Amino acid sequence: MDVNALYAIELIEKLELKPPIDLYELCKVFNIEIVKENLKNAYAYFRIRNGRKVIFLSNSIVGTEKEKFTIAHELGHYFLPNHLEKIDDMYTKTDYMYKNKRKKIETDVDKFAAELIMPSKFINPELEKISLRNFKQLEELAQKYQVSLTSLLCRYVDLNSETMALLCYENDKQKWQYKVFDDFRFDIYEGKILDDEAEKYTKDTLNNWLDENFQGTVYQVIFDLKKYNMKLVLIQVKYYY
Ligand SMILES: [Zn+2]
After folding, report:
1. pLDDT tens figures, 180-236
2. Are both 160 and 220 inside the same structural domain?
3. 22, 25, 32, 210: which could join 53 in a potential S-S bond, CB 3.0 to 4.6 Å?
4. What is the distance in A from the centroid of ligand 1 to the CA of 219?
5. Which residues surround ligand 1, an ion (CB under 5 A)?
């Protein structure tokens, strides 16, 4: 279990929270205000000013799928030890090491956020039951937790003991990739999605994603999110030993 997620678990246990986790209620318990504003450079940030604890949230994401994860992320900066000091540092230090540290802070916070809104104790048994090829089941589960399909699939990658990664394509160009670094030892390249129907690629046909020294089989599931002009590809790697 990730150490940052433990802080979220502690909150869930203490307040007996159940999904969908109501973050607005949670903020009330801790006297944290949510102020919606037109922010220029961020979706949100957390500040303590004159004793007031405030999450400033961009109007542009209010009511969207991004809202919930973003609030959970900002709560991470509050609940994880010493985090608020660290984010204030951000404005004075710009060296390379600092950027690296900052990246670590943000991924720590994301681990907290994912556990808070998709608690493993509730979502694990449900993820075990569903079939990835059953789009309707996945959508229903995302709705139940009030998260996007993308967040749900990232969570699937987090909690799965298999070696997996999620790739996001927009207009057939890879936009980002999500993987758990300790588990996924290979770099993933820019390659194109080869075939919507194929479920299994061996080394010969999949050199476009993984290094040619890769020894194994790659399985894929493609989620075509036409609404966003976006495709998510979940790949699972089985190594030959
Ligand atoms: Zn942050």
Report:
1. 876 777 778 777 676 655 566 665 555 567 776 777 778 888 898 888 889 999 988
2. yes
3. 32
4. 33
5. 106
